[in-house]
Write a structure and sequence with these properties.
The protein has 9 helices and 8 strands. By secondary structure, it is of the alpha/beta class. It binds 6-hydroxymethylpterin-diphosphate (HH2).
Amino acid sequence: MGILNVTPDSFSDGGRHLDPRAAASAAERLVGEGAAILDVGGESTRPGAAEVDVDEELRRVLPVIRAARSLGVAISVDTRRARVAAEALDAGATMVNDVSGGADPGMFPLVAAAGCDYVLMHTRGTPATMMGLATYDDVCGEVWAALEARRADAEAAGVRRIWLDPGIGFAKTTAQNLALLHDLPRRTGVPVLLGASRKRFIGELTGQADAGSRVEGSLAVALWAAQAGVDILRVHDVGATVRALAVWRAMAAA
Ligand code: HH2
């Protein structure tokens, strides 16, 4: 899954794709590099990010989704709002990536009626408040129990095609992120999506303050996750990840 943020303030690619032509060429590049899914987002969810008005979020994502339809890959909309998800699905998206885990009461009924794919991510609070909520006795047990409980709610509402995501960096410290990654091989048998690309904990471990310089660290996580059986990797550096996975896959199959 290639990341395409149409925002002024995303932590890594903020401001780069606000112009529709820049977004279209980024989408083409990500698909050319091997992305099977494009994840289009119009609201930054980095720690402390401000909320975006729904109409503004729609204004950002809809033209990009419409333009990306011709690229022949699946399109996901990264949104916490049912109204944005509904219009994105009408515009051609087939997956809803919801970092709030269904906080909008309209989200599960909408996704159930659409019959689309749904990514259910773990977080606490909102992007503005989440880092004050990173307190757990047993981070792995609590995160996966919360995900399973939300999945049961989603299924009860009629949602069928669900990927679970532990939400790396969302209400989690570096130590908690590492514990969740270490624990991934135990989570076999459930469809999992992971988004660790260029995140802050990688910068802390490698001494890279600039998000664009966190490629090698991101690849290390991607290979670990692939080995653990993670189904979808949400990444900025699609070409590098695809090449690293080609070698990993050959070794795994040898
Ligand atoms: N992380 C981000 C955004 N969406 N979706 C899922 N399912 N999992 C994630 O880990 C995830 C996500 C944050 O990264 P990014 O989109 O690069 O930055 P920003 O939130 O600043 O736009």
